[in-house]
């Protein structure tokens, strides 16, 4: 074979292998649906969290700066740990369907904001398992906490939990938790 023919067949070989490689193929439009979330399974509901100081929630590490402990503020660096009941209505005597256990560390120099981590265990009519949430919490305004995952019937879920103060007066404070849970297609 003439050297030029060897070169040209080599070139053809390389070119055809490049063209048939998946990386260079035309993207298949069916992999990019226009509305990818239309058929996601989801669940939306609200519960109420009851936190009683020195009973279901304790200050573990005192803060070091900023305002003192009040109904709405805690000093910067305060570490609080809780294990609170979750009920279906604002009334503590309403049906108990879960617990929220976690910690919050005051990270706002104004004493109003903290970083919260929680494991929320749920026993709902059709779903049992836990959700793990993490995010910033504002003491007097609603906060969105991204759901980073779950266990049991909530394995692989994503979404968010909006936490809003309902009653901050007295030794038991009440928060409303609004759950927006989405199962990815592979769950
Ligand atoms: C995309 O891929 C699917 C499944 O592999 C195939 O049936 C379809 O014909 C492809 N569409 C195009 C435009 O190549
Ligand atoms: C909670 O316990 C701490 C430490 O014993 C005490 O200083 C604080 O006053 C208690 N708070 C309430 C609201 O009972
Ligand atoms: C619970 O599951 C049953 C059977 O799968 C279904 O009929 C019912 O609508 C579900 N209830 C809720 C609140 O999702």
Describe this structure in words.
This protein is mostly beta strands and 187 residues long. The protein has one domain: Allene oxide cyclase-like (AOC barrel-like, Beta Barrel), CATH 2.40.480.10. The chain is built from one helix and nine strands. An eight-stranded antiparallel beta barrel has the order 1-3-4-5-6-7-8-9. A hairpin with a 4-residue loop joins strand 8 (158-167) and strand 9 (172-183). Bound molecules: 2-acetamido-2-deoxy-beta-D-glucopyranose (3 copies).
Report the bound ligands by name, code or SMILES: 2-acetamido-2-deoxy-beta-D-glucopyranose
At the first level of CATH, the class is Mainly Beta
**Distance between the amino and carboxyl termini:** 58 Å
| Overall tally of domains | 1
Query: Architecture, CATH level 2?
Result: Beta Barrel
What string gives the helices and strands in order? HEEEEEEEEE
The name of the CATH superfamily reads: Allene oxide cyclase-like
Q: Structural class of the secondary structure composition?
A: mainly beta
* Discrete helix count: 1
């Amino acid at each position: 074979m003439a050297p030029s023919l060897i070169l040209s067949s080599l070139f053809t070989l390389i070119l055809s292998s490049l063209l048939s490689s998946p990386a260079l193929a035309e993207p298949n439009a069916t992999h990019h649906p226009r509305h990818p979330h239309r058929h996601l399974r989801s669940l939306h509901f609200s519960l109420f969290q009851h936190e009683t100081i020195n009973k279901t929630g304790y200050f573990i590490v005192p803060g070091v700066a900023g305002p003192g402990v009040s109904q709405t503020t805690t000093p910067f660096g305060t570490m609080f740990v809780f294990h609170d009941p979750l009920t279906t209505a604002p009334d503590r005597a309403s049906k108990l369907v879960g617990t929220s256990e976690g910690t919050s560390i005051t990270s706002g120099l104004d004493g109003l904001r903290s970083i919260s981590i929680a494991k929320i265990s749920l026993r709902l009519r059709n779903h049992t398992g836990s959700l793990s949430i993490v995010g910033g919490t504002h003491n007097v305004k609603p906060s969105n906490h991204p759901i980073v995952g779950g266990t049991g019937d909530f394995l692989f879920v994503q979404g968010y939990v909006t936490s809003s103060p309902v009653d901050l007066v007295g030794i038991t404070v009440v928060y409303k938790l609004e759950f927006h849970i989405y199962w990815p297609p592979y769950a």
